[in-house]
Amino acid sequence: MSRLYRGLWYCEAHYPDGLIFITQPVEYDQAAVTAPLLGALWVILRPIPHTRARWEYLAPYEASDPPKWTDESED
Fold this sequence. Notes:
75 residues, alpha+beta, elongated
């Protein structure tokens, strides 16, 4: 999973009568599955700040990137 989707998210569902429903914080995969089940006009997935590990904000690369042993500028 990309580090962009790690951490906790919630669904903000907007209904025709002006009601806004916000779900409990869950992981992105669960929020993405829950969103269409809410039956709202539209649903916005919103990340909850500061729920990812600190090192994920500081890492200069994506952890799933394959390692590179040569400098690409030499090619």
